[in-house]
Design brief:
elongated; 4-stranded mixed β-sheet; OB fold (Dihydrolipoamide Acetyltransferase, E2P); 2 helices
Length: 192
Amino acid sequence: MNAAQPIPLQINFRNLETSEAVEAKVREKVNKLGHFYPTINSCRVVIEQRHRHHTQGNHFHVRIDLKVPGHELIAGREPDQNHAYTDVYVALRDAFDAMRRQLEDLARNQQGHVKRHEEKRHGHITEIAPDKTFGRIESVDGRWLYFHRNSLIGEDFDKLQVGTPVYYVEDMGDEGPQASSVYPVGKHHILV
């Protein structure tokens, strides 16, 4: 299926009358998704009006079920206390925005552009100079790295002790590898 062919679309209205204007808006938004992600197999949109207290108005719930090869994606916008969807077009916009983000994530995964978080380099402090201007870190692979007191983040250098586990960024200095952006491992972090 490509974007030039119409995407099989089913639109259901619940607790409200069918609206040609709302249907047209849904078709427009589905077509935009099709241009963005051309292999959409089918789309089902449910627009439901939920009756609330008369002083608060009626609220809209929108649910989108999208089928693409190998996946079914679901996005919806439900009225809640923080964001009451009393305007059907706002509810539609937000639901389709959520679906577009899911399609973007799926496309990135399929293309291998997944964000990978680099493992933080870590080690422990093995030396603190008597004048407390620098120290040394032993990395987990047994290398020793120099670090200056100005490289320490979030801790007072004078409170550091030999054996303190730390994370760091490794840079190349004049004398070889050195650690910058050094910060102690918090009690909530576990070194592996």
